[in-house]
Amino acid sequence: MAAMGKTENEFASKLHAAQARPFLRVLVTGGAGFLGSHLCRRLLDEGHQVICLDNFFTSQKLNIQDLFDRPNFEFVRHDITEPFRAEVDQIYNMACPASPVHYQYNPIKTTKVSVLCELRYSRGLSPPDACDALFFSCLSTWRRPR
To answer: In what order do the strands lie in the sheet with 25-29?
Structure first.
């Protein structure tokens, strides 16, 4: 019986922790890419609402096909170098070509994706005090590839 009580307490503790976790509205730019699609799944599994933004420049719709039936998932086909507005609690900016084939095909666009997105979000599209943001970028944006 003591073991049963411990199990019930552990379950109750985990349930309380899950209920205490805030529901977040999250924007994932580059959300149809390899890493972005996995992040979208993880956030959805944690119970958050996810807005996935991607223009399929280096990603595929197939990466997120299984997410379209999930009620907390919204996909927007959009080029992140153009303005976009949304009320969100967190932003994960993963919209940057990472493969040399892709970023060398259009190096200006790669730089725009990395730099313009950060400037837009840090200058008020989503107020910094109202939204957490994490920016990813291609290493070649900041140094010359070898």
So the answer is: 73-77, 49-54, 25-29, 90-93, 132-135
- Residue from 144, 25, 33 nearest 97 by CA: 33
Superfamily holding 23-133? NAD(P)-binding Rossmann-like Domain (3.40.50.720)
- pTM of the predicted model as reported, rounded to 2 decimal places: 0.68
Q: Is residue 26 within 8 Å of residue 88, measured between CB atoms? A: yes
Polymer length of the chain: 146
- Per-residue pLDDT of 27-37, as tens digits, reads 998 899 988 99
pLDDT at site 118:
59
Task: For the chain, give every domain's residue range.
Answer: 23-133
